[in-house]
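TICKET: design request
STATUS: open
ATTACHED STRUCTURE:
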């Protein structure tokens, strides 16, 4: 899962970056509205945290332009406490939710998780696929009740597949949601990660769809090889 943070306050930006990275997301950051707008317009994000008061271009304008251009990723707005009108304009501009400053970072993370799972059509914090469970609150994956220890890349890959289970996901799409904008993206490494994750899970649940990509499906735990 890959997210974008657009916040001009350097401390707040860093605080959000650290919390989101720790929660298992790969994160791109922007410090003004122009840069933020550009990234959101050109890179695929699973969610965006967008401040309203930004230099160069304000958050409402950024959001209106994204929505006008068909960018439909979930957006969580950051608003000032005493500006109720910001919340109204934010939601009218296409925001999916908002958090009022000052906030506890845990609240931002909880709202982010909810936005991401709702975008995937899921309603609970624990996502299941056969014997595999992803607890989005703790960023932990288990198989048949056994905790599966994954690296951050492997976790992001599984989290993306769990949110899009039963759909065929191309290698390019997976790659785009695993790495930040500065990473030299090589879709071949996805194959390596898939191989490792399959081994760790020990169940046959990731199908390779020749020429198209991968599909996570619910399998029986006892079909392990
Ligand atoms: Ca600001």
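STATUS: resolved
RESOLUTION: sequence designed for all positions
ATTACHED SEQUENCE:
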């Amino acid at each position: 899962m890959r997210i974008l943070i657009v916040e001009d306050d350097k401390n707040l930006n860093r605080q959000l970056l650290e919390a989101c990275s720790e929660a298992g997301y790969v994160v791109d950051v922007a410090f003004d509205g122009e840069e933020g707008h550009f990234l959101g317009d050109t890179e695929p994000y699973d969610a965006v945290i967008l401040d309203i008061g930004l230099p160069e271009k304000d958050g409402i304008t950024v959001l209106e332009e994204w929505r006008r251009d068909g960018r439909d990723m979930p957006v969580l707005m950051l608003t000032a406490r005493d500006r109720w009108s910001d919340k109204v304009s934010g939601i009218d501009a296409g925001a999916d939710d908002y958090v009022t400053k000052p906030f506890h970072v845990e609240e931002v993370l909880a709202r982010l998780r909810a936005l991401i799972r709702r975008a995937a059509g899921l309603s609970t914090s624990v996502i299941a696929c056969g014997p595999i469970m992803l607890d989005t609150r703790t960023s932990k994956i288990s198989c048949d009740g056994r905790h599966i220890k994954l690296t951050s890349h492997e976790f992001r890959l599984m989290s993306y597949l769990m949110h899009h289970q039963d759909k065929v996901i191309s290698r390019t799409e997976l790659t785009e949601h695993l790495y930040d904008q500065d990473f030299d993206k090589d879709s071949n490494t996805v194959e390596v990660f898939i191989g490792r994750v399959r081994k760790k899970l020990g169940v046959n649940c990731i199908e390779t769809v020749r020429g198209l990509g991968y599909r996570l499906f619910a399998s029986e735990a006892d079909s392990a090889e």
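CLOSING REMARK: The pocket of calcium ion is lined by residues 8-9, 51, 53-54 (CB under 6 Å). DSSP finds eight helices and twelve strands in the chain.
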